[in-house]
Amino acid sequence: MTPAPQLSIGELFGSMRRALLEQRVLLIRVTVLFAALSGLASAIELAGTFGTAISIGIQLLFSVSYSGLVAVLICLPGRAEGVGDLWSETTPVLARLIWIRLLSAIGIAAGLFLLIVPGLILMTIWAVAFQVVAVERTGVLPGLTRSRELVRGNGWRVFAFILLLGLVTATVALLAMLVALPLGTGVLGGAVAVFLIGLAAAPLAAVGPAVLYGHLTGEGARPPSPEDTDPYAPQ
């Protein structure tokens, strides 16, 4: 078995910075688009419990779609020249991405609620499962297994990177909320807060794992195969 490449947290953040700069044109377009859509969708929460449920579903779809597009943009450079190209690369596995986001979130949340440590372990070994499915076109369960294999040998470094990235992202999101605070907690204030968070914090949360995946694989990913035609089954 090939030894796992030893990660450097400093290099990971440096790669994030380079990725943000190199892909800034298309990344800005995608980010502004999804931040605006998320801001508009947040207003649905005002329609009571039913509206809140719909809003959560829409926000999940937007979040998964955005992260999938960013994964393709960062991990498969040169494959897309516009937002439409990124969308075409992502839609075949969009349903799988939703499944893996839900399953990993439920598993991590359950682990944190029960004993904390199991949740942290799952958070670490599944750190790039989403990117595996987006880039390598695997099924959901194979994606979780593949992520565990990639992380093996770098568990503590991956955990430290995720923790630091989460702190940075949370700080940026908090600052975005503070900027929107003078607008109040009504429709306008809520929509602006969601928009600013999507504009400032979402790129960090999406680019970080994509860069981590690239470092763990060491050579990018294989191109999609022609037989990857069923985007609906979790496999």
What can you see in these coordinates?
With about 240 residues, this protein is mainly α. The protein has one domain (about 10-215). Helix content is about 75%, strand content about 0%. It has 11 helices and no strands. It has helices spanning about 10-20, 25-40, 50-75, 85-90, 95-115, 115-125, 130-135, 140-150, 155-180, 185-200, 200-215. Helix 9 (about 155-180) runs antiparallel to helix 10 (about 185-200). It is globular. The two termini are about 25 Å apart. Residues about 220-235 have low confidence and may be disordered.
Secondary-structure blueprint of this entry?
Layout: H1 9-22, H2 24-42, H3 48-75, H4 83-90, H5 94-114, H6 117-125, H7 129-136, H8 140-151, H9 155-180, H10 187-200, H11 202-217
Helix pairs in contact: 1-11, 2-3, 2-10, 3-4, 3-5, 3-7, 3-11, 5-6, 5-7, 5-8, 6-9, 7-8, 9-10, 9-11
List key phrases describing it:
single chain, 235 residues, mainly alpha, disordered C terminus
